[in-house]
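B., you asked whether I could sanity-check this one before it goes into the benchmark set. Here's the sequence:
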Amino acid sequence: MSFYVYLSGEIHTDWRDEIQRGAEAAGLDIVFTAPVTDHDASDAAGDHLGEQSNQFWRDHQSSKVNAIRTRTLIEQSDLVVVRFGDKYKQWNAAFDAGYCSALAKPYITLHSEDIVHPLKEVDAGAQAWCTTTDQVVETLKYVLKA
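And here's what the prediction gave me:
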């Protein structure tokens, strides 16, 4: 069984690489996709459409261009992993989880125990909550090899 997995969320650690290495070591047939993880490139995604008068409109324009990629890859995925880090608030990750929920797309949340309360609604819609990338890999192994 082959799966397409979209890795959404936090961009400041190597959690995506950890999951990909674990899946490869387990011999899982998974194609991983992700948003643009270069923060500056993501912020500038719409700059080619013209200079904006203030930061709000620049962000608005770039978010729409980024949404083309994000929405398409989420829609094409079989499963989404949504990572919430401790250092920054990932509002975009929460939006991605909500989008998955609206599409009835299964998703797994990945975050530490100390942010369970603020993510209670996001976790409630998830099919699993993991605290480590190893738990994500074990979940993927079960789904693909059970």
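One thing to flag: The mean pLDDT is 95. Otherwise nothing jumped out at me.
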